[in-house]
Amino acid sequence: MVLIMINQIDEIVESEYTEVVEVWEASVRATHDFLREADIIYFKPLILHEYLKAVELRGVRNEQKKIIGFIGVADQKIEMLFIHPNERSQGIGRLLVDHALHKMQVTKVDVNEQNKQAVGFYERVGFKIISRSELDGLGMPYPILHMELSSSSQFII
Question: Model-level pTM greater than 0.70?
């Protein structure tokens, strides 16, 4: 298990977007088995050229300063959270969510309903499902669960 220090969360800049997309793709391939290959190919340039620019990005790096996990936040909402599959289950996601909750005032997240691991993760860290959309934001047939931080949550890592 890798020990990550809180000061290892830092801002990700545009010159690092290619590295971020590599983490995104590796993570998606490991966790989003409901996506088709065509979907991954479709989303990859959108992530790189549009979606990353629309969020505040924070990341965790390994000892070699490579990004191993990142979170993107906009309007108090987690828009993306991806951890490289080789680094999963080491507390990086919790660390990034804790940072987003306490430093970026996050209160909401949308999650693909078919990504059961992510749904369970967000429930464990204090979010609850408040509504569901049959289609994702692009009108694709991937149901989205809209979640909010439970008022009784006192999330601490």
Answer: yes
106: three-class secondary structure by DSSP: coil
Query: What CATH number does the domain containing 134 carry?
Result: 3.40.630.30
Within a domain: residue 157? no
Reported as a pLDDT band with limits 50, 70 and 90, residue 96 is: very high
* Contacts with 48 (C-beta within 8 Å, 6 or more apart), sequence order: 17, 18, 21
Give the containing element (helix H, strand E) for 45: helix 37-46
Q: Is residue 12 part of a domain?
A: yes
Report, in angstroms and rounded to the nearest whole number, the Rg of the chain calculated over CA atoms: 15
Length of the chain as a residue count = 157
pLDDT band for position 6 (50/70/90)? very low
Within a domain: 155? no
